[in-house]
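Thread: quick sanity check before group meeting

JM: Hey all, I'm pulling together slides for Thursday and realized we never actually wrote out the predicted structure for the chain we discussed last week. Dropping the sequence here so it's in one place. If anyone has concerns about the input, flag it before I start.
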Amino acid sequence: MEKGRGLLIWLLCLGVLLLFFMGGQLNPVAYLVAGVVLPLPVLLAGWRLGVRAALLLALAAALCVFSLKPGLAVILENLGAGQLLLMGVLLSVLHDRGMPPQRAIILTVAFLTLTLLLFLAGQALFSGMSPQAFLAQKSGEIMGTLSKVMGGGEGGSSGLLLPDLDQAEVETLVRRLLPGLIVANTGLVAWINVILARQLAFRLGWGEPKPPLFYWSTPEWLIFVVLGAGFLLLVPVTGVRFFSLNLLIVLGLLYFCQGVAVVAAWFHRWGLPRFFRLVGYALMFLNPLFFLIVTLGLMDLWLDFRRLHQPKDA
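JM (edit): ok, ran it. Output follows.
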């Protein structure tokens, strides 16, 4: 009976994955949603059924998509989706080994980033393009994706995101900040999927997630890296400044997660209803609340809002 139930869960996760794939091809909003939660079914299958089930699920979804239109083109078009499926498998493996969520996310992001860099370097070499030209091409593709998702025409997305800059200036900025944006985006997606998987597993009766979200914290020594990156912004060298900006983007994500943990601790302490918690979490991703949450995470280093040294009161 338990084996049959496990198979049903696995098939349900596969169906959800295929819906994500098909919806992303038909609607820009669905494409954006799928680009965030695609690892979730793989992660849930891994937590409930084991690492082997997660790996087979990712492979089955990839084979189903490939069978619809066999060829190299469909592989290249879905490399991003493949990376997200791999993210779900890696997070499942690390969870199965008992690794804390924070460390599992960092290791997953590091592995995926290194894999992506090696793949892009190989792709640039195979295409006979210089790294600068290949990076410019990729940044242009990213701007095109933003325009598609946000429903803008030519220059529409850039005007919405950065109204004081034209399309060429935005593409130049994206190209120089692309490394930090890729790492931060990968980390944010991994973090969101771990949080959602923990909550869904708890609601489905698969056990209470431990440790709670509000115990997330960054190492105290990391603040010196933040200060060093800030001082590098004063160096009158363009390359050094953009290196520090990329580093600050990644560090900002870490402190955003810590800021969310602080707010989660307050929500827990106040006993806020679930609906208001969901609304509050969603608002944190909007400007300017996003930067306020980052600041809150930084201030927690000194003010210790959650009183983590007193677990009973946390």
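AS: nice. The CA atoms of residues 14 and 60 lie 8 Å apart. Residues 213-314 form one domain.
JM: adding both to the slides.
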